[in-house]
Inverse folding.
């Protein structure tokens, strides 16, 4: 008996499905035990009629169609897996929670530099209505396991299939990216905060201790710190590590602990914070919808 | 009839200075508003940003963190660690649309009962001006 799989991408970029294909030859051997029944992005099959063993859902729920699809398909699966960071935490599309729906629609359909929409038409016909905020998939359907990553590492996808084939629960690393990272830590304190591309990168040394924003201390391991191996700071796509609910809060503590603490350096913490640009976008790049304060609020409204 | 707004303020007080200061305010019978719910921790350095976010999420209108004066920390520099965290946290809260004044850090020693009462009075008044915490009310609006 082969394990029967369905794959569906909701509001996202289809990168997670491509990550499955990135298994290359290994996929061929896996397919001896797996049968992909339905995967609109990968195979030509118009609808899913029978029940399947495992449903891999990627992407976020951006409109009513996504929500309907997620519910309809998950009812046909024994196990539903949130594949990728969008499905697990809300992902990059989740940063839209920093804007009101009206602002989003106006930006996309009216004010982007490449827009040619003189009549100022906002689509209303034959387009599913937009959901007001992005929520992680587990708020919509029952998710058995998460497999985060943007996109999930093919190695982790392979391990996931093997765990499923052996009837075992899908587990993730309990460590943080720093545990897998080879760059050297020297317990140095920072007196500046840089964005990638500013200043001069020193190879071999911890990027956070050089003043670059790196989400490694607040991010789950599993990716083998591939970005760090090429001196690209961690962006946090694997989400918060075990027993941490709020990646941004954890990261605030991590930055605070490398911030110069003695009076000698003469750096005011306020000054350091001013150097930190795009705070929410950096701290919650992939996890805003599943964090404690999951969207922008506005002061001054009466409850 | 409009209801009057009574701020709900959560206070994280360190065992050695903040809480002792609050104690002194109490034993000295100094009056201060009852809006503060005090939580005693061993050190202000124990205040994880998650605590503050959770308090705000669950409806606190303001969060007051009280630690020892710099140099006086029972654990050498726990208070300075929290100072740094709160600076970044405030920036994050502003970006999320909250007024950063809803979170306040104060250094109050065990001998400063008077200062404790003044700080609570000021803070409660400031929050009263700011109005209710908008997080809950905005949950399902656009």
């Amino acid at each position: 008996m082969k394990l029967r799989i369905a794959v569906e991408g909701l509001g996202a970029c289809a990168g997670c499905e491509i990550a499955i294909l990135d298994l290359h030859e290994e996929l061929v051997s896996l397919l001896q035990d797996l049968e992909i029944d339905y995967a609109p992005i990968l195979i030509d099959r118009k609808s899913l009629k029978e029940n399947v063993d495992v449903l891999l859902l990627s992407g976020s729920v951006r409109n009513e169609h996504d929500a309907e699809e997620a519910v309809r398909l998950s009812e046909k699966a024994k196990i539903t897996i949130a594949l990728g960071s969008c499905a697990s935490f809300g992902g990059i599309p989740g940063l839209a929670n920093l804007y009101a729906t009206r602002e989003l629609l106006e930006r996309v359909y009216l004010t982007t530099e490449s827009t040619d929409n003189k009549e100022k038409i906002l689509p209303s016909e034959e387009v599913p209505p937009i959901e007001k905020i992005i929520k992680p998939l587990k708020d919509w359907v029952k998710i058995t396991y998460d497999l985060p990553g943007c996109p999930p590492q093919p190695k982790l996808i392979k391990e996931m299939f093997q765990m499923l084939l052996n009837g075992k629960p899908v587990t993730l690393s309990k460590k943080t990216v720093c545990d897998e990272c080879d760059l050297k830590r020297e317990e140095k304190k920072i007196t500046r905060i840089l964005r990638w591309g500013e200043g001069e990168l020193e190879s071999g040394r911890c990027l956070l201790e050089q003043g670059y924003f790196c989400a490694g201390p607040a991010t789950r391991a599993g990716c083998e710190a591939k970005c760090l191996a090429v001196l690209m700071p961690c962006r946090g796509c694997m989400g918060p590590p075990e027993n941490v609910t709020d990646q941004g809060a954890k990261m605030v503590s991590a930055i605070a602990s490398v911030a110069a603490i003695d009076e000698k350096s003469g750096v005011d913490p306020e000054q350091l914070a001013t150097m930190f640009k795009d705070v929410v976008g950096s701290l919650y790049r992939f996890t805003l919808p599943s964090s404690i304060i999951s969207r922008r609020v506005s002061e001054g409204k009466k409850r | 009839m409009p209801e009057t707004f009574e701020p709900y303020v959560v206070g994280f007080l360190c065992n050695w200075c903040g809480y002792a200061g609050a104690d002194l305010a109490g034993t000295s019978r100094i009056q201060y508003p009852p809006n503060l719910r005090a939580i005693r921790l061993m050190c202000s350095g124990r205040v994880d940003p998650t605590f503050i976010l959770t308090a705000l999420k669950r409806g606190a209108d303001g969060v007051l963190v009280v630690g020892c004066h710099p140099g006086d920390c029972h654990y050498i520099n726990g208070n300075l660690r929290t100072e740094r965290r709160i600076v970044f946290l405030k920036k994050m809260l502003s970006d999320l649309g909250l007024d950063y004044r809803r979170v306040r850090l104060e250094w109050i020693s065990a001998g400063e009962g008077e200062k404790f009462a003044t700080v609570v009075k000021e803070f409660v008044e400031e929050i009263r001006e700011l109005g209710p915490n908008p997080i809950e009310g905005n949950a399902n609006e656009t």
Summary: Residues 138-142 of chain B have pLDDT under 50 and may be disordered.
